[in-house]
Structure formats: C-alpha cells, structure tokens
Automatic annotation (TrEMBL):
Residues 1-29 form the signal peptide. The keyword tRNA-binding does not apply. The lineage of its organism: Bacteria, Pseudomonadati, Pseudomonadota, Alphaproteobacteria, Hyphomicrobiales. InterPro entries: 5peptide_repeat, Pentapeptide-BTB/POZ_domain. Gene3D superfamilies: E3 ubiquitin-protein ligase SopA (2.160.20.80). PANTHER family: BTB_POZ DOMAIN-CONTAINING PROTEIN KCTD9. Keywords: Signal. This is Pentapeptide repeat-containing protein.
Length: 272
C-alpha cells in the first residue's frame, strides 16, 4: 500500500513538473533565439532536395497534406511551389527562397524562417504561431486572414497585405504568455492592414508610411518611434496605443479614427 502510494505521488509530481515545463517553454516561445547557434548545420542545412519536396507534394492529398514537420529545409530554392495546406511545424527554413510560393492555409507554427525570401508569396489564412522570421522578406506578400504571432523584427513587408489578419495577443489565454506579432524596426511601407487585429503588437520604430489601417485595431499597440507618415486611419481603434515619439505627419482620416483621445504619450507625438 505504501509503495503504491509512493508511486502515485511520484507520478503526480512528474506530471506537474512536465506541465510547468511546457508552460515555461510556451511562455518563452517568442524568445527561441536565446542560446541557439544559428550557424550550426541544424539551422543552415537541408535534408531534402527541391525534387524530394516536389515528390512529397505530388503524393499529398486533401485528407493527408504534405507534412514537413521538423524538417531541415534551410537554403533551398522552393520558389513558385504550391505548398498550400502543408505542415511546416518546427521546420527550419532559414534563408530559404519561397518567392512567389503558395502557402495558403499552411501551418508554420514554431518554424524558423530567419532571412527567408517570401517576396510575393501567398500565405492567406496561414498559421504562423511562435515562428521566428527576423529579417524575412515579405514584400508584396499576401497574409490576408492569417494568424500571425511571429517575431518579424527587422522584416520587410513593403506593399504586403495583412487585411483581416490576426496579429494581436489572445488575452484569454495568458497562461501561455503574451503571444503576439513583433514587428520592431520592420519596413511596412504601403502595408494593407485593413481590418487587421494589431492589438498589443510591438511596432516600435517600424516604418508604416502610406499604410492603410482602415478599420484596424491598434489597441494597446506599441508604436514608440514608429513612422506613421501619410497613414490612413479611418475607423482605426487607437485605445491605449503608445505613440511615444511616433511620427504622425499628414495622416488620412484621423478625425474619423476611434479612441485617439485615449492614446498614451500623445503629447510626445511628432506632428511636423
């Protein structure tokens, strides 16, 4: 009886410890860069060729889409491929060329896409949760309706679309930590963000010149030092947004924006 009780207690403690570890891992999912050697073969090499990727796509079905979970695909040229619906969970795609590729509905959760080239790619309704995309190129890419809680620090999304996309934090699930998009120092010039959820998103020092945020939410977003010159903000919700030293010059529709009187550091805005 005593041995059985001891075994039960050990199992309970082990399960609790595992649960705490998983929570801790998830809470730091957007800080995966720490202690990672980005020059290691695991992060810069590929275990498949483009031909093998194409073969996997050809064998895939709607019921069983192509699955590249955990695969090393860094540095490959996968430009123009139709990868719609494929799974790339925790895959390594650092510096991979995906220009013009179709990744609609693709699952890229926890994937590594550092300095990946996604110029003109389609990622409509894709999932990018805890993905690492620092300095990725997404100029002209279409992320309409996507769920993006990725680190896009220093990325380029010139002329891209995130219309209707969800980049904001899910405040109902904070046991997982503050998971949201990070676009610090990103180039978002001429970005189409109509109807996008950018609540609590980190946009510090980002360039949003001539972007369209009609109907978007910037609730509690961090916009310190951002360049908002010529931005369209018709029906944009600014409640709680931090605009410390942001450049808000010649905005379009500011008189029709929502909750602009509730922004933080409004007195520190640069207006000319």
């Amino acid at each position: 009886m005593r041995d059985r009780l001891g075994l039960t207690m050990k199992r309970s403690i082990g399960t609790a410890a595992l649960g705490l570890a998983l929570v801790a891992m998830t809470a730091t999912a957007q800080d995966m860069m720490r202690h990672v050697d980005l020059s290691s073969p695991d992060m810069v090499s590929a275990e498949l060729t483009r031909g093998e990727v194409e073969a996997a796509l050809a064998a895939a079905t709607i019921a069983a889409p192509a699955d590249f979970t955990g695969k090393r695909l860094s540095g490959l040229d996968l430009s123009g491929l139709n990868l719609s619906g494929a799974t790339f969970r925790a895959a390594r795609l650092n510096k991979t060329k995906l220009a013009g590729a179709r990744l609609d509905r693709a699952i890229l959760d926890q994937a590594w896409l550092i300095e990946a080239d996604l110029t003109g790619a389609s990622l409509r309704n894709a999932n990018l949760f805890a993905s690492q995309m620092a300095r990725a190129r997404l100029d002209g890419a279409d992320l309409s309706g996507a769920r993006v809680a990725a680190d896009l620090t220093g990325a380029s999304l010139v002329g891209a679309s995130i219309a209707g996309a969800n980049l904001g934090a899910d405040m109902r699930n904070q046991s997982m930590g503050l998971m949201r998009a990070v676009l610090k120092s990103a180039n978002l010039e001429r970005l189409n963000a109509r109807g996008a959820d950018l609540s609590r998103v980190d946009l510090e020092f980002a360039v949003l010149k001539s972007g369209d945020l009609t109907g978007a939410s910037l609730k509690s977003a961090q916009l310190g030092g951002a360049d908002l010159t010529g931005i369209t903000v018709i029906n944009t919700d600014f409640e709680g947004a931090d605009l410390d030293t942001a450049r808000l010059i010649a905005p379009i529709g500011l008189d029709r924006a929502r909750n602009f009187d509730k922004v933080k550091n409004r007195d520190r805005l640069i207006r000319q």
